[in-house]
Specification:
Elements (H helix, E strand, L loop, with lengths): L3 H17 L8 E5 L5 E3 L1 E9 L9 E11 L6 E6 L11 E6 L11 E9 L4 E5 L4 E3 L7 H9 L48 H64 L21 H4 L3 E3 L5 E3 L43
Parallel strand pairs: 2-9
Antiparallel strand pairs: 1-3, 3-6, 4-5, 4-7, 7-8, 10-11
Helix pairs in contact: 1-3
GO cellular component, one term: extracellular region
Protein name: Yeast cell wall synthesis Kre9/Knh1-like N-terminal domain-containing protein
InterPro entries: Kre9/Knh1, Kre9/Knh1-like_N
């Protein structure tokens, strides 16, 4: 198995882990209608939802309250217009048919969305938002602030950050939702016989929860990236180290082979014509010098040259050579004729 196999396995594990991470808004319900960017007239308005697949699903939710919202995504540029759900409506019903009054407001492209506040059986509540849609054929009026906020919101899926569905405090049971047919003029406070979902305090908690969830997601992504970079760095360092060791081993082997060939072959004594420094220089010990020189059949001594070819070597009686070291006891004096050789064995 190659060294890259563990790295491939690790990267595959990281990719699978990333695909399995659920977004923080996968809690409560997910609206299937109204469809994002769709246009609906006033009158009967079908609304449907399904389980979002999170830890707190429909089986954990009891009753809900559903409101129609107009405007942007912030507390000060959006408004809850009417409550669309009847009293004690159950989340498990998975939908309802509401009534949209013709004078609820004016037609604004993608200016409307729904807000559902569901009670959790173990306490608290969850807020879910639908995608944006358009109501057509209306004859009401809408404050210009909300019209401008809706127009500046790009995209039919761009809803408040509370879509992250942070669990907030449950509404008081003494304040039931209002009637589905109650309406509120846009130029006055909304008719509120109970506690219709609002985009004020609830959104404040939800946005704070969304920021925390985004921070946690960013931290997790950074940790995964750091682990991947660390593993890649370790594999790269180990590979470079193995390559360097291989180069060093090859250099040592070549150097040893070259040195061995030079020292063991005739004429290769350190590539010099002198006696090597490791040879004894005792004048009377001819045998100590002899391993670095060749003897001809007459017993005269020849010194090694830089080539293994013996033909280029000169007899000791015809030429003299400079020896290693500073001691000149074995060398011929400068006054001697150049045709005389110096015999270090005498």
């Amino acid at each position: 198995m190659s060294s890259s196999s563990p790295l491939r396995s690790f990267l595959l594990f990281v990719s699978v882990l990333a695909t399995q991470l659920r977004p923080t808004h996968a809690i409560g319900v997910r609206f299937t209608t109204p469809a994002p960017g769709a246009a609906y007239p006033s009158g009967q308005f079908a609304i449907n939802w399904e389980d979002a697949g999170g830890n707190i699903g429909i089986n954990s939710l009891t009753t809900y309250s559903l409101a129609l919202i107009v405007g942007g995504n912030l507390d000060d540029d959006s408004r809850s217009l009417i409550t669309l759900s009847p009293a004690n409506a159950k989340v498990s019903d998975l939908g309802l048919v509401a009534q949209i009054p013709i004078d609820v407001g004016q037609s604004i492209q993608n200016g409307y969305y729904l807000s559902m506040q569901s009670n959790v059986s173990t306490g608290g509540s969850v807020i879910n938002y639908s995608n944006r849609f358009t109501l057509i054929g209306l004859n009401g009026t809408t404050d210009q602030k909300y019209v401008a906020a809706a127009a500046s919101t790009v995209g039919d899926t761009n809803v408040p950050g509370a879509q992250l569905n942070t669990i907030i405090n449950a509404p008081s049971p003494s304040n039931p939702p209002t009637s589905p047919n109650s309406t509120t003029p846009d130029n006055g406070p909304p008719a509120n016989n109970g506690t219709a979902p609002s985009t004020n305090e609830d959104n404040t908690y939800a946005i704070a929860g969304g920021a925390l969830a985004a921070l946690l997601a960013g931290t997790l992504t950074s940790i995964i990236l750091l682990i991947v970079l660390t593993v890649l760095g370790v594999f790269w360092w180990r590979r470079r180290r193995r390559q360097q060791r291989a180069r060093d081993a090859g250099s040592d082997e070549n150097a040893a082979t070259s040195m061995s060939a030079r020292e063991l072959t005739p004429g290769g004594l350190m590539d010099k014509v002198e006696l090597a420094d490791r040879t004894s220089r005792v004048p009377t010990a001819a045998a100590a010098i002899r391993p670095l020189a060749e003897l001809d059949s007459h017993g005269s001594e020849r010194f090694e040259a830089m080539t293994p070819v013996a033909a280029v070597e000169a007899d000791s009686a015809e030429i003299r050579y400079e020896l290693e070291g500073d001691w000149s006891g074995w060398e011929a004096a400068a006054r001697r004729s150049h045709v005389q050789g110096y015999d270090p064995t005498r």
